[in-house]
Every structure is written in structure tokens, then in C-alpha cells.
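Methods — Computational structure assignment.
A single polypeptide chain was analysed. Its primary sequence is given first, followed by the predicted tertiary structure written as C-alpha cells.
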Amino acid sequence: MKRHYFIFLALIMLFFASSVLAQKSVVQTIVLDAGHGGIDSGAPGTGRYAKTEKHIALDVTLKLGEYLKAAYPEMKIVYTRTNDTFPTLKDRTDLANNSNADLFISIHCDSFTKTSAKGSSSHVMGLRYTEANLRVAQKENSVIFLEDNYEENYDGFDPNSPESIIAFSLSQTTYLDQSILIAQKIQEQFRERVNRTDRGVKQTPLWVTRATNMPSVLVELGFISNPSEEDFLNSEIGQSYMASAIFRAIKDYKKELELSSPNLAVTPVLNETKIDSTKLLPKNETTQKGVIFKVQIKTSLEDKEIASIMNFKVDVFKEKNMFKYTIGNEMQLEKAKEIQKIAVENGYKDAFVIAFLNNKKIGISDAINFQKQQ
């Protein structure tokens, strides 16, 4: 009898131990990107300090990494640089993608010709950018000109060309909702806990937020062309405050997503099956083979019923923990773009075109190349 009781007790303990071990976080790997570095000093500031943007960005990034590691020892922290080196923009995004990161944070300082400009801002990829945001995009993207083979590495992308930027922006808002969420939380912390002027969350066509396959945000800590903000960002306490603010924002972001995703609490340990999360859900799975283009109109942490848009039935697929809603089912990209306009006109301002090959999600450029080869 005692032996049976012992076995029963052991099985119970094993069950709970397995459950604990199986607990997952939505942010298991985070990439911290200190902007600029090496030959690229970034914005010079007012000239009163030897340190430039690249130094401040690195100092704040390393502090942020220390805070995260102390709070979440299990979290994998990946740095694009830990010293004064010059990883290219492509190096940074490749590292993030190859690390299968769950979040990408790029840290920079802003600068302007007028010393009165001040405030902090956070930038995500999206289509609602303005002329003012294009200034930031041009500043942060122009670093690619320091690379000898930038035309090859960036597929002809020219940060100085409006046409290039528009084409560059068309296919990327996959993680827009989550990117905006973390960006809003960062700005909230800057405004309410560090008393920084809030310049808001911007949609800006930046390479590092466009080429990363995860929620991503580029943070401008403040203007180092403004003497007061430059003093603050060069100070030990200022850097600690800004790093702490971003840390708290990540903490809140992580908590909010996990509370909204009960399925993350426990996942099976035994017989674990690797699920292709980019595949359409069975209830709406199309049998159409080859490339199809659809228009993504919305993402959500919860499965929702969304009414048709101008006779276009709304389909849904799940990617990681997000439900993604689409309309259209077109073999030609141009027709999908026409549907995208209809979605925008009907209130889905961030609608964008995505592509599938045999029901598996792929990049727009890959879809076009595949069609050319047929």
C-alpha cells in the first residue's frame, strides 16, 4: 500500500514539475540593438562632449540588458554590439531573425538643426508616416551608404528616394499591433516616470524595423542637439532612468501579452509537435496551390468574428500567438493592392498585402520571384 501511495505521489509531483518547466513566456529571446557604432558615430551632439550618439546608445543598451537579466535570468539577451563596433543594418536584422527573437529594441538618440527640438519618440514600421517621420527614416537609414556593397545588400533600397521608401513599406506591418503596444508602453514610461517630453509613437519606414520578423521598435531617447537633453543623456543617472523606463515597458508588455494568452501557461512536454504557425487555420484553409496574395486587415490576441468588407469574406490564420485577419485571395499582386485600397477606405488604415505559397506564408518578394520562375 505504501509503495502504491509513493508511486502516486511521485506521479503527481512529476506532473506539476513538468507543468512548471513547460511554462513559456511570450518574450523568451530579446535582441537589444545599440544604434550606430564604430565608423558610424551617429549624431554628434552639440560638440560639448566627446561622446556621440553611438556611445549613449551603447551605454543605455547595456544597462537595459543588465536590468532584464537580473529580473528574468531565463530570458536570452542578444546584443547586436557590446562595444564600439559597426554591425551593418543587415547584420543587425539577420542576427535578430536568426535568433528567432520575440522582440527587437533598437536604441538611438535624435538630432535636429534647431537646438530647441526636444523629446523622446518610438518608431514602428507602418504606412502612416509623415514628412517629419521621413526625416528620422532618412537619418537612421542613411548609414547603409557607409557600406561598399549596400546596393546588393539592400536590394536597391535608396533611403533618399520617396519611391523606394513607398515600395519598401508596402509589405511590412505584420507585427504592427505588438510593435505599437511596446512602443506605447515605452513612451508612457518616458513621459510619466522620467518626465520626458513625449513626441509619441510614429510609423516610420526604417530598415531595422522592416526587416525583422518580430515585433520591433526603434527608440529615440532624446535630442542630443538640445543642450539640456544632451546633458541628461550623457549623465549616469539619465542613462539609468532611460534604461529603467524601457525595462519597465518590456515588463508591462510581457505581462499583458501573457495575461491575454492563457494557452501559453502550459504546453505539453511529451509528444511535442512542432506546429507551422504560419499556415492558415483549417476552418479557412484554401486548397488553392501556388502563390496567393491576401490583404491583412487586423491582428488580435483573441479570435474574433469580423464582418465582411464590401462582400470580401474575412479569413483568419494564426501566427505565433496572434490571430490575423485577411480579405482577398488573389493570384496577382496588383489585384490584391486594389483590395488593400478598399480595406483602407473602409477603416482598416494599416491594411497591407501578404503572400502565401501552398498555404504557407512567405515574403512578397519571394512570391513575386516564385511567379517569375513559373
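Note: The chain has a mean pLDDT of 80.
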